[in-house]
Amino acid sequence: DVVLKGTKVDGVYSADPVTNADAVKFDKISFADVLSNRLNVMDMTAFTLCEENKLPIIIFNINEPENLPRILKGEAIGTLVH
Fold first, then answer.
1. Which regions in the chain score pLDDT beneath 50?
2. How far apart are the C-alpha atoms of 9 and 64, rounded to whole Å?
């Protein structure tokens, strides 16, 4: 089981990639690292529920038409929060 979070960017970054050219994209990141780095990946209530229930989240660019089918096939797209 996994939660899919479609967004306008292709994953979780160290900073806002729109305003910060030095932002680094994470392929994988832990729930703890998201919290300790204060990264805003989604609504905190939903994020906490996923963490408490050990439900990973895949954050990906929903505007790329092939991303969802590729994720469903098991390809590593976006960022996995675990």
1. none
2. 10
The tokens 């895949």 sit on which residue?
58
pLDDT digits (tens, 9 = 90+) for 25-43: 999 999 999 999 999 899 9
- Which pairing describes strands 79-81 and 57-61: parallel, antiparallel, or unpaired? antiparallel
Give the residue among 78, 82, 6 at the shortest CA–CA distance from 42: 6
Residue with tokens 């050990």: 54
Share of the chain above pLDDT 90, in %: 98
CB atoms within 10 A of CB 36: 9
pLDDT at 7: 94
Strand order in the sheet with 28-29: 3-7, 57-61, 79-81, 28-29
Neighbour tally for 61: CB within 10 Å: 14
Q: How many residues does the chain have?
A: 82
